[in-house]
Write a structure and sequence with these properties.
Blueprint lengths: L15 H4 L12 H8 L11 H5 L6 H10 L2 H9 L5 H7 L21 H14 L2 H8 L9 E5 L3 H12 L3 E5 L8 H4 L8 H13 L3 E3 L10 H7 L2 E4 L5 E2 L12 E3 H9 L18 E5 L3 H12 L3 E5 L11 H10 L2 E3 L2 E8 L5 E15 L5 E13 L2 E4 L3 E2 L3 H5 L24 E3 L2 H4 L4 H19 L8
Parallel strand pairs: 1-2, 1-4, 2-3, 4-15, 6-13, 7-8, 7-13, 8-9
Antiparallel strand pairs: 5-14, 10-11, 11-12
Helix pairs in contact: 2-4, 2-7, 4-5, 4-7, 5-7, 6-7, 9-18, 13-14, 14-15
Bound molecules: flavin-adenine dinucleotide and iron/sulfur cluster (SF4) (2 copies).
One iron/sulfur cluster binds next to helix 3 and helix 4.
Length: about 475
């Protein structure tokens, strides 16, 4: 039985005063030596019991890959991770581990959980940087399961994973992506300081080497219809995500300098607005920014605005314990100087004579004992109001699927919240059309989108091979 080491080995990070001046990655990850030390903390729970495996949405054999780190065998560690997760450099950085694998780690009951995410990231980064990944890729010859042509709509984690799995199975895959750059939220949403674009570029390069074709600037439902894709391909996978921002229906919403977080982040991440005029797209950000919301999107928008030189306050209508962002991001935001205001619900945006926002009026809220269906305490306005100055507001209160495809392809059944209806094989109401990721779940996580992409690839393979029973 390994000796219990209660506290985790910290990963090196750039100091807050240095990182607020740039978009470079904050967390530097483990060195080989530190990763081995952290791996020693894993108690090697038996696979059939290990709670961390159950806590991971794609059930990676966590004790097995950690054991390989202890032995110094990064190649085997990567092989084990790849069985269930082909993008560990990404999930190791962005998974909400505290709610998943690490949230249930037994070491966490007496100390801090084993740092599974950072160990996963270490394996992926080390293997990529030392030619181990390339070696392993060469060894893993594609398994031919049958030939066919598949169109994937959307180049986010769901679409990319589905495409990669199908290509490995011997299919000819073409991705249709609406934007000028593939990656979905990984490209336009999550900023460089959390997920360097070179990691995504490397994964896209690997896909291209597998033969996957990526067509950007192709909006399915406009540039090409679903029906046209079905005529040309044996099956279609829809991974169009949930990129339509929810906005606030309150007075003043049309004032200038009120952004949705998606627009704000897209301008910064994808269009490099912070490098204007070197890059074409500008962004106007004032001195006092209020971000409304408390999820990862809110945290990313707040920390990006901070890096553009603004003073940033996050206003949330609930309390700290209900914030949905990753704990690491909340901690980083605080260290960097983002301020938090809780139990404030916006009721009006106040403008100046030029039609730009100059303040936000909030009603103070209080929590009740009663809980909603998500387990959060219900809140109620107490009739007291407070006005906070702001020359820029960023709204990050949630996202929903866009309806471009479903408005065009009326045969696709849709739930009231805009998500696509799928069966247990992830097939939509149109035979041969599969879907996964945020397009079927609403706003969820990268690993769930990837898990769907992988599951759909297997189902598509069965469908094309005629192994799937289709109900009339
Ligand atoms: P997306 O990543 O949204 O990709 C969908 C793609 O489809 C996009 O590229 C889009 O342009 C394209 N598309 C849409 N419509 C069409 C069409 N008609 N034709 C062609 N292409 C189309 N999750 C985490 O696990 N950890 C995090 O830290 C985290 N942070 C986040 C931060 C932000 C700012 C946001 C917005 C989300 C975050 N999430 C995080 C959630 C996570 O990114 C998503 O759950 C995940 O990206 C969903 O993957 P997807 O492939 O389903 O969709
Ligand atoms: Fe944990 Fe995410 Fe890796 Fe699963 S994929 S082991 S949840 S970090
Ligand atoms: Fe190791 Fe924790 Fe998983 Fe047990 S639950 S195998 S200690 S990571």
């Amino acid at each position: 039985m390994p000796k219990l080491i209660k506290e985790r080995i910290p990963t090196p990070e750039r100091p807050p005063e240095e990182r607020v001046k740039s978009f470079v990655e904050v967390n530097l990850g483990y060195t080989f030596e530190l990763a081995k030390q952290e791996a020693e903390r894993c108690l090697q729970c038996p696979v059939e019991y290990a709670p961390c495996i159950k806590g991971c949405p794609v059930h990676i054999n966590i004790p097995a890959f950690i054991a390989k780190i202890k032995e110094g065998d990064v190649k085997e560690a990567l092989r084990i991770i790849w069985n269930d997760n082909t993008l560990p450099a990404i999930t190791g950085r962005v998974c909400p581990q505290e709610d998943q694998c690490e949230g249930v780690c037994v070491v966490g009951k007496v100390g801090t959980a084993v740092n599974i995410g950072k160990l996963e990231r270490f394996v992926a980064d080390y293997a990529r940087e030392h030619g181990i990944e390339e070696e392993l890729l060469k060894e893993m010859a594609p398994k031919a399961c049958g030939k066919g042509r598949v169109a994937v709509v959307g180049a986010g984690p769901a679409g990319l994973t589905c495409a990669g799995e199908l290509a490995k199975l011997g299919y000819e895959v073409t991705i249709y992506e609406a934007l000028h750059s593939p990656g979905g939220v990984l490209a336009y949403g999550i900023p460089e300081f959390r997920l360097p674009k070179k990691i995504l570029a490397h994964e896209l390069d690997k896909l291209r080497k597998l033969g996957v074709k990526v067509l950007t600037d192709h909006v399915v439902g406009k540039t090409v219809t679903l029906e046209e894709l079905l005529e040309e391909y044996d099956a279609v996978f829809i991974g169009t995500g949930a990129g339509t921002p929810k906005l606030l229906n309150i007075p003043g919403i049309l004032l200038g300098r009120i952004y949705s977080a998606n627009e704000f982040l897209t301008r910064i991440n994808l269009m490099k607005a912070y490098k204007f005029p070197e890059y074409d797209t500008p962004i106007a950000v004032g001195k006092k920014v209020i971000v409304i919301g408390a999820g990862n999107t809110a945290m990313d928008a707040a920390r990006s605005a901070l890096r553009l030189g603004s003073e940033v306050t996050i206003a949330y209508r609930r309390g700290r314990e209900d914030m949905t962002a990753r704990i690491e991001e909340i901690g980083h935001a605080e260290e960097e100087g983002v301020k938090f205001e809780f139990f404030l619900n916006p009721v009006e945006f106040i403008g100046d004579e030029e039609g730009r926002v100059k303040a936000v009026k909030f009603e103070r809220m209080k929590p009740l004992e009663e809980r909603d269906r998500k387990g959060k305490r219900k809140i109620v306005g107490i009739g007291e109001y407070v006005t906070l100055e702001a020359d820029t507001v960023i709204i990050a209160i949630g996202l929903e699927p866009n309806r471009i495809i479903t408005e065009e392809a009326t045969g696709l059944k849709v739930n009231p919240n805009g998500t696509l209806v799928v069966d247990e094989n992830l097939m939509t109401s149109i035979p041969g059309v599969f879907a996964g990721g945020d397009a079927i779940r609403g706003e969820a996580t990268v690993i769930l989108a990837m898990g769907d992409g992988k599951r759909a690839a297997k189902a598509i393979c069965d469908y094309i091979e005629g192994k799937m029973k289709i109900e009339d």
